[in-house]
Fold:
Amino acid sequence: MADKSRDISVVVVGGSYAGAAAARKLADLSKKGYPGLKVTLVDEKSHYFHAIGFPKSLVDGKYASKSFLPFSAFFEAGTQHQFVNSRLHAVTDAHHLELENGQQLYFDYLVLATGGKAPGPINVSATGKDDGLAEIERLRTGLENADSVLVIGGGAVGVEVTGFVAAAFPQKKVTLVHSGKRLLPANFREGVSNGAVAKLGQLGVNVVLNERIELPEDFGHAAHIGPQVLSGASGAEYSSDVQILAVGFKVNSAFLEPLEAKLGSLLHIEDGPGFIRVRPTLQLDSDAFPNIFVPGDANDLPMTAKYGFKAEMQGGTTAANIKKLIDSGFDQAFVRSQQQQRSSSVEVPPLSKWSDMLDAILVPIGPDLGVAQMLKVALGCSGIGNFIVRQLKTKDFMLWMRKGYFPNKQQIN
Ligand SMILES: Cc1cc2nc3c(=O)[nH]c(=O)nc-3n(C[C@H](O)[C@H](O)[C@H](O)COP(=O)(O)OP(=O)(O)OC[C@H]3O[C@@H](n4cnc5c(N)ncnc54)[C@H](O)[C@@H]3O)c2cc1C
Structure:
């Protein structure tokens, strides 16, 4: 049995759903028999932003302000753990990384929870709270001054944003255009999609299905405030004063280039969003880097796993697997083998595999309405769907759960 009190360094990059879950569980271990375990959380943002609550933030400035939680409050004061506000530049080998601020960090275990970027404005790109609030405020003002709004993309985010905009601005013409034949991800039941169309209709939204908006090359990656006429593949034209993109998603993996160069092969998928390849244990898909994990939206698990709550579960699996490796003394053997340049000879103990067993969704459509699917039961057109979604999600979009990750309460307003 390995000595559990030894010094062990874990670096977690990305403090959102996946990274926060991993960092919190690992930091807690240091109080439970692993006193030498040090967690360093790195994020390019100074504040966590609660993306799940974005539809509410867009129409409610007070809620938006509460949705930014400072990473400086993530660890209790006086512990060995630390937050570093910088961007990961490169993972240089199996034990080192470089940050954009020039800092070099050593790690025994690395968690890359760097997620992905949805298009603006639904992805708040600012790195601090004030800039982030200003970004949301700009769009809110644009909506207030608009007569018509076009939302492009009828996945869960598009449906929620459309519902909140339509409910907050009932006098405006709101159109949701979706390329699929039904709203919401296809793995959910048709009754949920039909319920979403009906409830958006109740709010006066014009839902257009089977239509692909042809976005100009220079449309970029942001909200557009100002009159535009966009064409659909059907030949129809859509004129609006504000356009909100709820399609597209990109993963950054440029920081893996030094490892890819060493291996002579890619650790990410070139096509599509550029997902990072993982094994079912959430380890990077390479025998050379068994101590590097990629939970959350950044990995190449199916799109049905790209949810905050699943990212959080993957963060938990990652922490549990790192604990198993620590218990087996893996890091000590791995360091020795690296020094002797024999990395392939280190035995990795059996680790847990993440499996996606839960298909559930709660979709608020404005403050009063909503559709859901839980345990294969679809709550689409019914009033009970509204009630359940309101009770479980709409009130504060589960922000209270995120606050649990930030024990330094005096820093949170
Ligand atoms: C508007 C909106 C609404 C949503 N609603 C829901 C919902 O209701 N329910 C649900 O389950 N999911 C929802 N999602 C999806 C959910 O937000 C994502 O699945 C989740 O954010 C993924 O979490 P993650 O930790 O993998 O990555 P992310 O949340 O993308 O976080 C990545 C973190 O890494 C940091 N980072 C990235 N690159 C670097 C770098 N190079 N250096 C340092 N730091 C870096 C970022 O700053 C960020 O903090 C929604 C998403 C959006 C955009």
